[in-house]
Amino acid sequence: MNVRTMTVAEVLTSGSQPERTCIGCRKKGPRSELLRLVAEGSGSSAVLVDERRRMAGRGAWLHPSESCLALAIKRRAFGRALRGATGTAAVEHRIKSGPSVAGAPVAATPTVQPESGSEI
After folding, report:
1. Whole-number Å distance between alpha carbons of 18 and 82
2. CA dist list (Å): 71 to 36, 93, 96, 115
3. For residue 33, which of 58, 53, 47 has the smallest C-alpha distance?
4. CB neighbourhood size of 103 (10 A)
5. What sign has the CA pseudo-torsion 67, 73, 74, 76?
6. What is the per-residue pLDDT across 29-65, written as a single tens digit (0 to 9) for each?
7. Rounded to the nearest 10 degrees, how much is the dihedral formed by the CA atoms of 79, 67, 21, 54?
8. Exposed site from 15, 57, 88, 107, fewest CB < 10 Å?
9. Coil, strand, or helix at residue 43?
C-alpha cells in the first residue's frame, strides 16, 4: 500500500473550500470566486445569476470575467451545462456591471423601542 503524506499547506488549501469548474475557461477555482448560474425554468431558456447560491435546480459556474463569458458563449457551454438554456442577457449584464449591489453589506436598521411608557 502506497501512503502519501500531505504537507500542512496542501491540507489547508485543499480542504478549505469546495472547488468548481468554470464553464468558460474550464479551470478550477474556489466556489467563492465564481458565479453560480441556473436556468430560469418554467419553459424559459434564460440563464440567471444566483447571487446567494441558493436557487433550486442544476447550477453551472463561471468566472466573473468577460473573457470567460465569451469563451462560454463561443463553446455553447450554457446549453450543455444547463440543459438547453441559452439566454445569457442577465449574465452579461451582471459581469459588465461589476459586483452586484445584492452582494454589498446591508446597513443595520435601528431597533424600534416599544411605546409602553414603562421606559425611564
Report:
1. 20
2. 16, 16, 15, 59
3. 53
4. 8
5. positive
6. 999 999 999 998 777 789 999 999 999 989 999 999 9
7. -70
8. 107
9. coil
